[in-house]
Automatic annotation (TrEMBL):
Pfam families: Phage_connect_1
Source species, domain of life: Bacteria
Lineage: Bacteria, Bacillati, Bacillota, Bacilli, Bacillales
Protein name per UniProt: Head-tail connector protein
Species in which this protein is naturally found: Aeribacillus composti
Length: 94
């Protein structure tokens, strides 16, 4: 599945949410995660769609944002799975 194909229903299924009370929150989370991934990697929307593993990073990040309402950082370490997937595609490293 490409990032551009992900819907709030997909995110809700991944998070095991079966009600519509949080739909507006999931809409915000979806937009925020796509923007985060794009800015983190420096990839265009088209380039992000070429890398379907980024979709899993989107799901993990979205679920993390929904469950914890924050991006979990352990000490100075970001979520290892999300960071490693995004690092593989980052073209704007300094």
């Amino acid at each position: 599945m490409k990032i551009s194909e992900v819907t709030i229903d997909d995110l809700k299924k991944y998070a095991h949410v079966y009600h519509s009370e949080d739909d507006s929150l999931f809409e915000s989370i979806l937009v925020a995660c796509k923007n985060y991934i794009q800015k983190y990697t420096g990839l265009s929307n088209e380039q992000m769609d070429e890398n379907e593993d980024l979709t899993m990073a989107l799901f993990v990040l979205a679920n993390e944002l929904y469950d914890n309402r924050t991006y979990t950082v352990d000490g100075d370490k970001a979520n290892v799975v999300v960071k490693s997937i995004l690092d593989m595609h980052s073209i704007n490293l300094l």
